[in-house]
What we know:
The structure holds two protein chains of two kinds. Chain A is of the alpha/beta class. In chain A, 69% of the residues lie in helices and 7% in strands. Chain B folds into two domains: 216 residues, Rossmann fold (3-Layer(aba) Sandwich); 76 residues, Alpha-Beta Plaits (2-Layer Sandwich). Chain B is built from ten helices and 14 strands. In chain B, the strands form three sheets. In chain B, strands 6-7-8-3-9-10 form a six-stranded mixed β-sheet, with helices on both faces. In chain B, strands 2-1-4-5 form a four-stranded antiparallel β-sheet, with helices on one face. Chain B is elongated. Chain B starts with a strand and ends with a helix.
Amino acid sequence: MNPLRVIWLVGLRELLERGRSRAFILGLIATQALIIGSFFLQAFVAGEASKVSLGTVGSVPSDVRLAITVVADSLDADLAITPYSDLAAATEALRDEKVGAVLVGPDVSPGDQGVGELLVKDRPDARLQTIVQAAYQSLGQRPTPVPSLHALEPQSAADQTAFLLANVAVVLLFVSIFTFGYWVLTGVVEEKQSRVVEVVLATVRPRELLMGKVLGIGVLGLIQLLLFVITGLVVAGVTGKLTLPTTTAPTALLMLAWFAIGYTLYSTMFATLGALANRVEDASNASMPVMFPAIASYLLALLVVTNDPDGTIAIVTTYVPFSAPIVVPLRAALGAIAPWEILLSAAITIAFTYLLFVIGGRVYAGAVLGTGGQMKLRDAWRLAGRG
Amino acid sequence: MLEVVDLTKHYGSVTALDGATFSAAPGRIVGFLGPNGAGKTTAMRCVFGLVQPERGETRWQGKPIDRSARLTFGYMPEQRGLYPRMKVADQVAYFAQHHGLSRTVARAATATWLERLGIADRAASRSETLSHGNQQRIQLAVALAHDPALLVLDEPFSGLDPIGIATMTEILQERAAAGVGVLFSSHQLDLVEDVCQDVVIIAHGRIVAAGEIEALKAASGRRELEVEVAGADGAWLDGRPGVSIVERSGNRVKALVSDGAELGDLLAAASKAGEVRRFAYGPPRLSELFMEAVEG
Lengths: 387, 296
């Protein structure tokens, strides 16, 4: 029989049996609920903030001051105005987030239109900005000069979203790769423990069984990840909470592609180690050698690379196959990686995965029929070598 | 025709197969006998490519067995294996598809066999929820659903109740009548004697006897004698040349005597001891042949 049909049959079985399993469906519902919930929670919390505080520096005309209070009242905002003696004090208060913005009088800084500046930390609080602008406009002059906006640490909304998305992507990738990689591990051990593998291998070659299994479970993983991404983007659009950076679509695609690569890499290792174990109870012990590089990669990505996406560690981990699947999409989401780097890293990781698959496939073939105790890697290799 | 030629396999210092050679003809039921650890399971695994022999080969229709040949075989391994959480019908159809059946044909064949084996009402149950005997029936359905040309069953009767044994026997006989070659291992020698036409006896990895049961019996240099004499404990048979006592119980005595023993003398001796109630003489049972072959 055609090997592709065999792989298809094995993969389809995994897809259908596991796709219908309570574990998959409940997991899917729970994670989707989490994504939607977190967005609404954020919107809810943001809506609560009716308190706004404005600092002033220099001479702000009293009619402006009055207009601001009136507008704030009419918008139902609880506004506190704090005057500061000089710009340095005001700036410090702003950095410490004691005030949301500082209105700088034209005597300290005339701004573009000669009426001073509205100083903010990174980006303006929409409510505060509206209040100040409306106050100036209410003074009746046409065209109305308004204080020009000046940020201490300019950061676009898109930048912020990119950072947020990058972090979400790392967590999702890590969780997805491990959830589904672990399914491959337990699937291999269960097949061995229930002895059904002997019936399967009477017609199926070990490597085909391995490929079908990795493929079937991988498709489930892709489906789940795709749903994550779609739900996330739809909810973001609906709640209007996020300004999506232009890198969103490529990042989403890269994430799916790197899930495929990373999952194949890790699930191949999981399957190989699973074949050496005899009982599901031993599976987690058997998986230790995989968990270590995985968790190290995850922590490095989350703690180091997010903050310094161009640093040495970021560059090194880009080309280490174990960490590349997490680090590359992260750097891409932060806009800190060149296309050629992505391609080179992908090539290295895929080549390494292929090598692992050849080695792992042989160990798997040698070990998967064994019954007597935990098998050693070397014995399995020799056993398969005879075949 | 399945031919196993000169199979040799060691596991470390243990010899599993040592030049084993035998065959199983189409339309015949072959009993594969041997003490535990004699090499039965290893030989069967070699047929399915699950074990690679160091020497020798397995052939089907005169050619080395390859993958396409194996698709026409049905296999029931010694350690039964099913996907515990898979539904019964899905499971049987899945394996049938692996033997090359289309989805539709596999489904139809599954329905037929589940009906035949009396577990059609459990088709939608998870396999693990069925009793041991019924799981054995699923395993048999897995071996049969693709209508194999050769059945290789490792201890198919173990763990079956009398009704299960009757069903299994009927199915094996029916398959053989349809031209299928059937090879199965068992320790239930009386059952094998009833069901099989041929036997292959293996000991320490070597075939020690093989052929038609009737021919093996006829060729045996011994005959079985069973005599019941009222009031005598069978001591009358002691010490006679060419006689070895197999079993004594009350007034009955069972012995193996060499072919050509003077029956007249024996009967006379029995009559002298008391009233002869039973005097049976004939070829030995399969179990006698087995002991002889394995120990000899």
